[in-house]
Amino acid sequence: MSLRRKPKKPTKFQQAADGSMTLIEHVRELRNRLFWASIGIVAGLIVGFIVSNYVFDLLSGPYCNLDSSWVLNADGVKECRYLTLGATDGLILKLKIALWVGLIVGAPVWLFQLWAFIAPGLHRHERKWAYVFVAIAAPLFAGGAVLAYFVVEHSLAFIMEAGVLEESQQLEVTSYIGFVTTMILLFGVAFEFPLVLLMLNFTGVVSARRLLSWWRAVVFLSFAFAAIATPDPGPFGMTLLAACMTLLYFIAVLVAFLNDKRKGRGKELYEGLDDDAISELPEEKVPVGASDPIAAPTAVEAPAPVSKPAPIERRYDDMT
Q1: What are phi and psi of 172, to 5 degrees?
Q2: If phi over 0 gives left and psi between -120 and 50 gives alpha, with beta otherwise, what is residue 245?
Q3: How far apart are CA 191 and CA 244, in angstroms?
Q4: Does residue 1 carry a pLDDT above 50?
Q5: How far is CA 300 from CA 293, 297, 303, 306, in A?
Q6: Long-range CB contacts (< 8 A, 24+ apart) of 232-237?
Q7: Using CA atoms, how far apart are residues 57 and 236, in angstroms rounded to an integer?
Q8: Where are the alpha helices (DSSP H) in the chain?
Q9: Residue 86 carries which DSSP code?
Q10: Cα end-to-end distance, the chain, whole Å
Q11: Measured CA angle at 130 (ends 125, 134), to 5 deg
Q12: What is the pTM of this model?
């Protein structure tokens, strides 16, 4: 009696990889992925609601460092105080902070569910580079967020002192928190720009030499973006952001050169030629002699005429 193992049933990941899943099964898998991603976000939302007061104190740091934000309370003690325009502003702001923290805390869950849904459609080398780019994108975004907090902390006092109200003013809480979070998002996205250039290079769209030839435009656009994004009208924040973006650009170009060298790019036969350059043809002249005479075609006999069939005689009663 021979013991045979039953063949293992392929997993959903393997079925999606070899294309054996039907459309309904894809829709069901998407539903399950969205469900577990939502569970991860809700769990992060609960954690964010618990720590929302600590996050609010962290975001309030640049404003509470100003002398104008401190007022005397009923007990005669100074405290950092905001202006509120609505009765529900505090609760809504706490829910917003909890949602932001929940998206960050639940990122491993919903990112894994997203990756598990799209990964079967990618090749093995594409999945490998996706891991690398995601591992680089997270620290870059975190670095941009830290830089944004540093810029806001050093530019907020100048902004408030330069206004017509001078420094004796209090800020509305939802507007201030929205301002800080917008700055963090802008700086974080700006730090992802070199990663986009590397993706273009690794996919073979742009070479490293072409990326390096754009350095003047990149430096100009970095300063233009920094001048628009930074709240400080002075040169400190703008120069700091533009310098970081330019440095990351040149690091990306260096990595692109190493990648081109590894893949042997730039050694092609027609690499140094322009698209409109005329190809060099050999100038060796080959003598051409007289060709052989061509015989005239023989006459073709005309086909015999086809005899027409005799008309059919019809009787008068054939029409009935």
Answers
A1: -80, 135
A2: alpha
A3: 8
A4: no
A5: 21, 9, 9, 18
A6: 232/151, 232/154, 232/155, 232/158, 232/159, 233/158, 233/159, 233/162, 234/155, 234/158, 236/151, 236/154, 236/155, 237/151, 237/154, 237/155
A7: 25
A8: 12-17, 23-50, 52-59, 61-64, 89-105, 107-118, 124-162, 173-190, 193-202, 208-212, 215-229, 235-263
A9: S
A10: 85
A11: 155
A12: 0.67
Mean pLDDT of 189-208: 84
Structure tokens at 144: 């941009």
Looking up tokens 């420094």 gives 167
Q: Do 229 and 174 meet the contact criterion of CB atoms below 8 Å apart?
A: no
User: Which tokens is 25 given?
Assistant: 């099964």
User: Does pLDDT of 239 surpass 70?
Assistant: yes
Which of 11-15, 59-63, 102-106 has the lowest average pLDDT?
11-15
Q: Indicate if the pLDDT at residue 28 is higher than 80.
A: yes
What the block records as the tokens of 227 is 């001048």
Distance CA 115, CA 122 (A): 10
Structure tokens at 307: 């005899």
Separation in Å, CA 222 to CA 9, 136, 208, 215, 229: 53, 20, 19, 10, 10
Give every CB contact of residue 160 below 8 A, 6+ residues apart in sequence.
66, 68, 166, 167, 169
Distance CA 40, CA 49 (A): 14
Amino acid at 151: V
Q: Are strands 70-72 and 78-80 parallel, antiparallel or unpaired?
A: antiparallel
Instruction: Pull the structure tokens for residue 235.
Output: 């040169």
Rounded Cα gap, residues 191 and 229, in angstroms:
13
Q: Rounded to an integer, what distance in angstroms lies between the CA atom of residue 173 and that of residue 88?
A: 12
Rounded (5°) CA angle 251-255-257: 115
Question: What is the number of other CB atoms lying within 10 angstroms of the CB of residue 19?
Answer: 8
